[in-house]
Design a protein that fits this description.
The structure is a single chain. 50% of the residues lie in helices and 10% in strands. By secondary structure, it is an alpha+beta fold. The strands form three sheets. Strands 5, 6, 7, 8, 9 and 10 form a six-stranded antiparallel β-sheet that branches. A two-stranded parallel sheet has the order 1-4. A hairpin with a 4-residue loop joins strand 2 and strand 3. Helix 6 crosses helix 13, helix 17 packs antiparallel against helix 20 and helix 22 packs antiparallel against helix 23.
């Protein structure tokens, strides 16, 4: 909706995977709403910068190229059925003529060219004689097997337990050494609706995040000196904690003053902090709290130390630092490591097998001819050269496979599997002729057509009132995700809960059929798309309750409620048409009445300028 002024409170956005800069297209789309036609002679756009932005980034947002146009074409059962009902029209023809297929075929020649370049590059990498190549190949393959086994072992060992205390941490290939674990947090759900919420739920984000106190030095003190350092340290408490590198170059009174403020910094990140070195001035080294993942753990010590409940004060972190130093003094040859079997009590047979394999591979590597007869420098050179050649060839192979797949028809296999699904649930017969179920699904595209059709033919709607039918359908138009721990059906009345349970049974059957036909469908994710969070509010709306009172029954924004009701009215209208197409007068009348109950008041106003 247009407005006089558009304010950007942040220049980054969450896209379901990460916080990134807004694109030029997104900026134009949002800022273009500034200025109301007929009311303002110009629109105002205010950009609030809450972090440093490079000129190139700013220029890219304001004057950058438009977002690339990429096809998001996909086949739906509704589309497939409507194509199959038309005589002499093949769905495969539509796929071949699609923009999606055109883009895929257009990319293939460039991929092949790139693959050829990589193959030539691989051939030009000099490894050694034929015998040395074979030795390097054997050694590299065993080393990769050992690496995979150790990763599997790490996944089993690195399950957070109460026995952890001291962890050896590396972040972005920088070893920070031994740190103290203060907290372990499990990943929570996306909490947002739409594509962003679904992407967040499917993302590869770590299952656990760890809060670890690590010794570090602030990077600022490595680069700034004199008056600049003094000015920077005024803002030091705002920076993420660790030892600032500014202190490395500041001297005299300024450095003395800066050191007084250094303990105020308690949050750390690799962007602002570097690992402490043995030759660093101890006044510059401080313990700061880093957020890391399980993948950042190199080793786990069996030693445990006392950690204060709050570590944001300089005194608390100083005590922890002294405890770590004392532990290192007591174990000059290195801290004892946690034994997975004795200390963690891991007794699974799979773990013992992995440990035996790792030990056997380690012994084979140490006795290998390349390790026993060749100098270490030559061994490293041979293995690294072979690894580089092997990885280059592997990249070329993947590019050729990708180009080959682009030259074949897109989604051909999915199309065959979807046809099998339609035959199995009775939408088409063995000859591909549309049946009554198929004609019903042809009219529905707002929600999952297979589930809606199964609900109709299972007679679920016949035993329900108009209000119950509409409330049940709201589970297909409300896509906002709640918190992982929340149960949307908690406290729900039985007259709404029972129909929802029937919907879950029907949806589960549909999901199982798709899985049986070879489609990549996750049953839990498929069932999770039916969200009952708006059922009670929609039921009240159909009963004539005012919007302001209905909104109090939801935990979402007004716009989400309005969007849900508008999509719901469209779905009810499509089911009415479907009921008429199959000659079900009772169902048609019921959903005609349902549409009248939904379409009222401010939700369906043509304009919000009232």
């Amino acid at each position: 909706m247009p407005a006089k002024t558009v304010v950007f409170t942040n220049t980054r956005k969450w896209d379901g995977k990460e916080f990134r800069w807004v694109t030029s297209g997104e900026y134009i789309q949002m800022s273009g709403r500034a200025g109301r036609r007929g009311k303002d002679d110009r629109g105002l756009v205010i950009q609030m910068l809450d972090e440093k932005m490079e000129p190139s980034v700013c220029k890219g947002i304001l004057y950058g190229d438009p977002d690339p146009l990429n096809s998001s074409y996909r086949i739906s059962y509704n589309m497939l059925l409507n194509l199959m009902r038309v005589e002499d029209v093949e769905p495969e023809f539509l796929l071949r003529a699609s923009f999606h297929q055109f883009q895929r075929e257009k990319e293939a020649p460039a991929l092949i060219t790139k693959a050829e370049e990589l193959e030539n590059e691989a051939e030009s990498i000099e490894v050694g004689s034929t015998e040395e190549v074979e030795l390097a190949k054997e050694y590299y393959q065993m080393d990769q097997q050992l690496l995979l086994i150790r990763r599997k072992i790490a996944k089993i060992v690195q399950k957070p337990t109460g026995t952890w205390a001291l962890l050896d941490i590396s972040i972005e290939s920088q070893s920070f050494g031994w740190g103290v674990l203060t907290a372990c947090k499990k990943k929570t759900g996306g909490g947002s609706g739409g594509d962003a919420g679904r992407l967040a739920a499917m993302s590869d984000a770590p299952a656990y995040t760890l809060e670890v106190l690590l010794p570090c030095v602030d990077r600022h003190f490595d680069e700034v000196d004199g008056t600049e350092k003094s000015d920077d340290l005024k803002d030091a408490p705002l920076l993420i904690p660790c030892v600032d590198r500014h202190f490395d170059e500041v001297d005299g009174t300024e450095k003395s003053d800066d050191l007084k403020d250094a303990p105020l910094l308690w949050r750390g990140s690799v962007r602002f902090c570097r690992p402490a070195k043995p030759d660093d001035d101890m006044e510059l080294v401080s313990m700061r709290l880093f957020t890391v993942t399980l993948e950042n753990i190199d080793r786990i010590s069996a030693v445990r130390i006392f950690t204060p409940p709050a570590v944001n004060t300089p005194e608390a972190r100083k005590k922890v630092s002294m405890s770590v130093d004392e532990v290192k003094k007591r174990f000059p040859e290195g801290l004892p490591l946690l034994d997975p079997i004795k200390d963690l009590g891991i007794e699974e047979d799979e773990f013992k097998i992995l440990m035996d394999r790792a030990e056997a591979l380690a012994n084979r590597l140490s006795s290998h001819k390349l390790a026993a007869e060749y100098p270490e420098v030559d061994r490293i050179r041979l293995v690294q050269s072979y690894e580089k050649r092997h990885e280059t060839k592997e990249k070329a192979r993947l590019l050729r496979d990708k180009a080959r797949s682009f030259q074949t028809m897109a989604m051909k296999d999915d199309l065959k599997k979807m046809k099998r699904v339609l035959k199995k649930i009775g939408h088409v017969d063995a000859n591909g002729v549309i049946q009554t179920k198929g004609r019903t699904a042809c009219e529905i595209n707002t929600a999952n057509e297979l589930v809606v059709t199964e609900l109709i033919f299972a007679g679920v709607f016949k035993s329900l009132t108009v209000e119950q039918c509409v409330a049940l359908l709201s589970t297909m138009t409300f896509d906002e995700r709640g918190k992982d721990d929340d149960d949307p059906t908690a406290g729900m009345k039985s007259y709404l809960l029972n129909p929802f349970n029937k919907l879950q049974e029907v949806a589960k059957t549909v999901a199982q059929v798709q899985v049986a036909c070879g489609l990549d469908v996750d049953e839990d994710d498929f069932l999770a798309q039916f969200n009952p969070g708006m059922m009670e509010a929609v039921f009240a709306w159909c009963k004539g309750v005012k919007f302001v009172d209905v909104q109090k029954m939801t935990g979402s924004f007004e716009g989400t409620t309005i969007r849900t009701l508008r999509r719901l009215e469209e779905l009810v209208r499509q089911i009415t048409v479907a009921a008429k197409a199959i000659g079900d007068k009772d169902l048609e009348t019921k959903f005609l009445d349902g549409g009248k109950l939904i379409k009222r008041d401010i939700v369906f106003c043509n304009s919000l300028y009232l």
